[in-house]
Amino acid sequence: MKTVFVLSSIAVSMLAAGCASAPPTRADLDGRYVCNAARMAKVDREARLEGKEVHWVHCPLAKLRVVG
Q1: Which of 19, 49, 58, 62 is the most buried (most CB within 10 A)?
Q2: DSSP letters along 42-56, please?
Q3: pLDDT at 68
C-alpha cells in the first residue's frame, strides 16, 4: 500500500512539474511598472511619526529595470 502511494505521489509531482510555467526572463521584466514599495514604506513611516493616517487608492509606480 505504501509503495503504491509513493509511486502515485511521484507520478503526480512529475506531472505537476511538467505543467509549471517558465520563469520570467530579463526581457519579460524590463520596463514593467510595479508598485514602489520603498516609497510607500517611507510615506507610511513619515505619517506614523506625524500621527497621520494614510489610505492608498493607487500605489506609486516605479519602472522596473533589470540589471545584469
Answers
A1: 62
A2: HHHHHHHHHT-----
A3: 66
